[in-house]
Design a protein that fits this description.
Three copies of one chain form a homotrimer. Chain A is built from three helices and 25 strands. By secondary structure, chain A is mainly β. At the A-B interface, loops of A face loops of B.
Chain lengths: ~240, ~240, ~240
């Protein structure tokens, strides 16, 4: 039997790569690209219009294609009931091998990096940029236009109203920086002792914003800090 | 092609107006009225039975209609995976032009006003009354029987356990009144200076409950205050 | 008309008992047992693979069955858009007459007792054990491997990061024990005065962990305490 269920709806303008699985009841609306090896669960909802009052709520299932598209990266997993919207000016993007878990939501123009996990029930607002290897806990929520830098962890149910720096752990209402994701530092191939150096900077209120200074003790974490700095004006979370 | 997808299920007892769009996989169960110009997204779930242990979990898809109905107002937008239940004694109602966004939920007998936004992932319990132009942030939750008055804003992830007065901004766990929705006051056509007058009352602990007194400095906001007062016994949120 | 909608997908390896209702768009993937009298709502998603990176994301809809199964107990209610995953080493289980409400989620290997309510929008992580008559409020979330003992109540939106003892009421971020579910004590057939005795123990920091001592004043609540104690190493929530 086909691994693309005949009970899925794959609309006009949807390009599906090799070795893709799509479950019954999934709906994919164009424009949309699904790269090789992606797994799309039953009832997943990909490519409906942006939730913006200024943009038309079109009927893409009837061939009325609009908006800037969606891209599901190679090997990504999109689980049951997850929702990913069309971009308004760029492709809403799920990076390679990332997981968008059941009933999670990426709004228009979100860029999600590679090897990231957006857990069950998470809602991410429009325009957000979420880095590689980020892990966002169940039922958490990210305000539109926020940045969550590579390697960061967001705790269950946390409403993220500020930007989250690299490898930070964030939790609570309002959200606070509660530590550094030391396991993530090591898994990403860095010297595990760098986690301590990074935490010392955060604890001292240093978030690497507004200038080009990069302390020597950050070692190979410098790339993630440069990524963070490149995202424009930032308002980081406070330290617990 | 039809803008009502042949892959939607529109059951017995569902009346659909003109210029309505319904996406693939949407399920509409009667009794239900969808007014002109509404947009029902893929996978939306409208008209299943109230979640009350005292009422039957009937199979409306097989023609076993029960309960008090659902009404989707003209021009309303119901997004992917949103859930709206049958009323138990009145029609569960979405007001004209309101948005019930992806994976949001209105329980039995909820009355949602016009031009309101119920954001992605929100859950609203049974019997709630939500006024015009209310905005409820992503993944927030409203306890059954609560009142959210016109123009109010509820922050992301906030569990609303008390009633929310007109144009109030509410945020946190437990929820607190953190300000007045000044933008909403202006957009609703009021003198923007009235926001300040309203905030002064809330800050002084005056929530316009229990008598007919209406201070003169509220001007055209008096209608919203009268609406609030008319909802019966009220237990407003505390001020931050 | 059939009370099992022809628009539901009931896959290979799914055994369906007598008097079961299944709505349009529901997806059931095997291995899975649905016991007599269960009600499966439109768009419910039952039996997709565990969300574990170490396990294959198989296409059960195409006959590729794997994993340890799902069991839906007699008379259980699974509402629209709810998600229940395959177990990895035991059947993910919903107890008799329990309600898994709309857009709620039980991860792999969760054991949910009888007569429990998992409210709308709740997410429960892998391996959790949830006792009989538990009530979890809307949009709450339970961390993987946590225990929620019989009769406990979890407040709306609460992120449960610790274990919850019998008949405890838990609320907030971080979650705190705020009282005892006296109504639940009485409904479960116990002397209502036992609620006070139990609260006195919790308030004194006594959570019945680590030894076999069972105070005499707990009366018929002793069974629930023994259940709790039998769950292995426990880290209970703190008292408010």
């Amino acid at each position: 039997m086909s691994e693309i269920s005949p009970l899925a709806f794959v609309g006009e303008g949807v390009e599906v790569g090799a070795d893709v699985k799509i479950g019954p009841g999934a709906v994919l609306l164009g424009p949309c690209v699904v790269e090789d090896g992606a797994w799309i669960g039953p009832g997943a909802q990909i490519g409906a219009p942006p939730e913006m009052s200024s943009l038309p709520q079109n009927a893409a299932w009837a061939g009325d294609l609009q908006h800037a598209g969606v891209r599901i990266g190679a090997g990504a997993v999109i689980r049951e009931g997850a929702v990913i919207h069309q971009g308004s000016y760029r492709e809403t993007t799920v990076g390679a091998r990332s997981w968008v878990l059941n009933r999670a939501y990426l709004a228009h123009d979100v860029l999600l990096g590679a090897d990231a996990t957006v857990s069950a029930g998470v809602s991410i607002g429009g325009h957000c940029v979420i880095g590689d290897r980020v892990n966002i806990g169940m039922n958490a929520v990210v305000h539109q236009r926020r940045i969550v830098a590579p390697g960061a962890m967001v705790g269950m149910g946390t409403p993220v109203t500020r930007d989250v720096p690299p490898f930070a752990k964030v939790y609570g209402t309002p959200p606070r920086l509660t530590g550094v994701n030391a396991v993530g530092v090591e898994r990403a191939g860095h010297d595990p002792r760098l986690a301590e150096a990074l935490l010392a900077h955060y604890s001292a209120g240093e978030f690497f914003i507004g200038n080009g200074w990069l302390p020597g003790d950050l070692g190979t974490l410098g790339d993630a800090v440069q990524w963070w700095r490149a995202q424009g004006e930032l308002r980081p979370v406070s330290v617990a």
